[in-house]
Amino acid sequence: MSIKYKVPLYLVIVFLLFIPILFGFFKVFLNDDFGRNLDSYWEHYEIVNEGIISGLMQRYPDTEEMESYLQQVYDAQQISVRIMDTEGRLVMETEDVKRNLPILKQKELAFYQDNLVYTVEIMHPYPLRIFRWLRIAGWRGTLGGGIRLIILLLLAIIVGTIIIYLHYAIVKPLLTLQKSLDKFNYDDLSIDLPYINRDDEIGYFCQKFLEMTERLKESRKKQVDLILSISHDLKTPLTSVIGFSERLLSAKQQTEERRQEYYQIIHSKARDMNNLLEEFH
């Protein structure tokens, strides 16, 4: 598999393994605390809603007192209230909760002397904000410190496994190849590439490098054969030149005709060597 696919796939696998581990940790250690505190959270809203309805009914039917009370609630807790009569007509409302804040909308019924008089929509800000339950469960306390430690440890394991993988999958093969290249020279074309069977870019690179060494060996063999051929082609006329020159130098009495014959042979072989050298050039 190609490295450009192998590395992302490895990271995805590690990430997918990290998610169930983290989920399992929260499931085992925080599930009970989360459930208990979630119940407390809803009970808190129910108590607040009951208090608002009670405050409204204490001021009923004085609408000015009711509006003043709702404004005090909004100013103090940022809780927005909308009141409708039994036929669904809007009676009064406070300002909306700030739009950039999440809200929890709940409907309550307001009774006066056992008679239904209003339907009340109560909108609370900040319902179950992200990780709020972690703070409820003690994120800022001893348990929270342990959670942070576990998460940091898991992240460290992920980063460590990525570093180890990249070292053994990419860095180490490249270092091995570098050492092999440092030992490589023209006199010794043998090379050991242990990653040649890998099915990725590094294996492909090792295969191509091995093919290059084979081509260099073939080129070296051709050069040696060429030198041997040149040596053989030059040796034959050169032997004749040396032999007939020695005869001219060593013979005490030779006829002029014989000397001319030797001169012709030496000249002819010298021209042959010159022609060979021109062809080689």
What does this structure look like?
- This protein is α+β, with helices and mostly antiparallel strands.
- The chain is 69% helix and 11% strand.
- The chain folds into two domains: 3-154, Beta-Lactamase, CATH 3.30.450; 201-280, Signal transduction histidine kinase, dimerisation/phosphotransfer (DHp) domain (Helix Hairpins, Orthogonal Bundle), CATH 1.10.287.
- It has helices at 3-59, 63-77, 132-136, 142-183, 201-250, 256-280, and strands at residues 80-84, 90-93, 103-112, 115-125.
- The two termini are 50 Å apart.
Helices and strands, with pairings:
Blueprint: H1 3-59, H2 63-77, E1 80-84, E2 90-93, E3 103-112, E4 115-125, H3 132-136, H4 142-183, H5 201-250, H6 256-280
Antiparallel strand pairs: 1-2, 1-4, 3-4
Helix pairs in contact: 1-2, 1-4, 5-6
Shape: rod-shaped
Number of helices: 6
- Give the averaged pLDDT, no decimals: 77
Any guess at the CATH architecture of the largest domain?
A: 2-Layer Sandwich
Q: What profile does the largest beta sheet have? A: 4 strands, antiparallel
Class from secondary-structure proportions = alpha+beta
> In the CATH hierarchy, what is the class of the largest domain?
Alpha Beta
N-to-C order of helices and strands: HHEEEEHHHH
Features:
4-stranded antiparallel β-sheet, 2 domains, alpha+beta, Helix Hairpins
